Amino acid sequence: MDNFKAFLKRKDIVFSGKRYGIDALGAMAQGLFCSLLIGTIIRTLGQQLSVQMLVDIGTYAMAVSGPAMAVAIGYALKAPPMVLFSLAAVGWAANAEGGAGGPLAVLIIAIVAAEFGKAVSKETKVDILVTPAVTILIGVALAKLIAPPIGSAADAFGILIDNATKLQPFWMGIVVSVLVGVALTLPISSAAICSVLGLTGLAGGAAVAGCCAQMIGFAVISFRENRWGGLVSQGLGTSMLQMPNIVKNPRVWIAPTLASAITGPIATCLFRLEMNGAPINSGMGTCGLCGPIGVWTGWLAPSEKAIARGATVTNATGFDWLGLILIAIVLPAILSLLIHALVRKAGWVKDGDLKLD
For residues 328 and 211, what is the distance between their CA atoms, to the nearest angstrom? Predict the structure, then answer.
C-alpha cells in the first residue's frame, strides 16, 4: 500500500473532490468558453451581419468543444504533454457519444483517461507509443460504453428542471436563481454545471438572473471599498473574487443572494425570460456579458439543445428587452444596494468587509 501511495504521489494523481469537482470542472468551463460559447457568438454575429467568414469561423470553433473541454481538464489535472494532446481524441469521442449530455460525459471520461495516461507516462522506453495509446484506448472505449447513458441521465435531469420551472415558475425561479447564483460565486463552475445539465429555456433565464444578481450585486455594494476597478472586475469578471471576504464574514453574501431570490421569479413569472443560447451562457451571468448575450443569441438563433426542447426563433419586443435589462443589470443593482443598506444598519457588515486584496 505504501508503494502504491508513493507511486500516486510521484505521478501527481490526487483523488479529491477539489481536483475533480473544482479544478477539472472549472477548467472544462474554460474549454467550453473558448470553443462553443465564443463560436456561438461569432457565428450569430456572422448570421446577423451576413458575413459568411464569421459564420464559418464560429462553426469551426463550436465543432471542437469536446477536444477543448478534454484538453482543459487534462491541463487542470497537470497531465504531461503526451497525455494532454491525446485527450483531444478522447474529448471528441465522449462529446459525440454523450449526445445532449456530452459535457458531463467528457468531464468523467477525460478525468479517467488522463489519470491512466499519467500513470503510464514515461514508464517505458516506448513512451511515445504507450502513453497516447493507453490514454486514447481507455478514453474512447469508455466513451463508447458509458457516454450514452451518462448523456441521457444528464439530459433527463435537465429536462426535469426545465419542466418543473414551467410548472412552478415562482418557486423554481427562486430555487434555480439562488442555487446557480451561489455556484457562480463559489469556487466551482456554474457555467459548467449549466452546460452539463443543458439548462436552457425558462430555467436558463432563472439561472441568468441569479448569476447576474451575484455579480452586479457584489460589484455595487462593494463600490465604496473597491471603486471602479472592483466594479469592473466583479461586474464583468467574477463575483468569486469575494470568496475570501465571504469566508471571513458570510453575512456579506446576504444582499446579492436575496436579490437573486427576487429577480429569479420576476424573470420566470413576469417577463418569461428564456435563455435559449448555448447552455453555458446560463451560468455566466454578466461575465463578459455572456448571460445577456446568450439570451440575445437565443432569440435570433436558438441552440441545438434549446431547439430540442421546443425553442424557436423569437422576434424580441420592447418588453423582452426591458425584462433583460432589468433582470441582468438594473434590479440586481438596486435590490442589492437596498438590502445591503439594511444589513449594514443591523451591524452585520462594516466598512472594509468587502475590500478586495
Answer: 9
Q: What's the rounded Cα separation, in Å, for the pair 138 and 8? A: 19
Do 190 and 244 lie in a common domain? yes
Put residue 124 in one of left, alpha, beta given phi > 0 → left and psi -120 to 50 → alpha: beta
Question: Which three cell numbers mark 269?
Answer: 413569472
Instruction: Give the count of beta carbons closer than 10 Å to the beta carbon of residue 217.
Output: 33
Output the CA torsion 298→205→336→168 (10° steps): 160
Q: Are residues 40 and 114 in the same domain?
A: yes
Indicate whether 187 pLDDT > 80. no
Question: Quick one: 102 exposed, middle or buried, by C-beta within 10 A (0-12, 13-18, 19+)?
Answer: buried
Amino acid identity, residue 269?
Answer: C
- Please tell me the total count of domains within the chain: 2
Q: How many CB atoms lie within 10 A of CB 124?
A: 11
Claim to verify: residue 172 and residue 198 sit in the same structural domain: yes
> How far apart are the C-alpha atoms of 219 and 255, rounded to whole Å?
11
- Boundary of a domain, candidates 103, 123, 155: 155
At 200-234, the pLDDT tens digits run: 999 999 999 999 999 999 999 999 999 999 899 89
Separation in Å, CA 273 to CA 254, 261, 280, 298: 24, 15, 16, 11
- Please indicate, yes or no, whether residues 104 and 173 belong to a single structural domain of this protein: no
Q: Which range marks the domain in which residue 6 is found?
A: 2-155
Q: Give the chain's count of helices (H) and strands (E).
A: 19, 0
Contacts of 220 (CB under 8 A, 6+ apart): 231, 235, 332, 333, 336, 337
* Cross-strand pairs, 275: 201
- Among all chains, which residue has been given the C-alpha cell 472544462? 28
pLDDT band at 192 (very low <50, low <70, confident <90, very high): confident
Is residue 115 domain-resident? yes
Supply the pTM of this predicted model. 0.79
Among 108, 132, 155, identify where a domain stops.
155
Tell me how far CA of residue 108 lies from CA of 9, 149, 158, 283, in angstroms.
21, 12, 18, 20
Which amino acid, one-letter code, is at 320? D
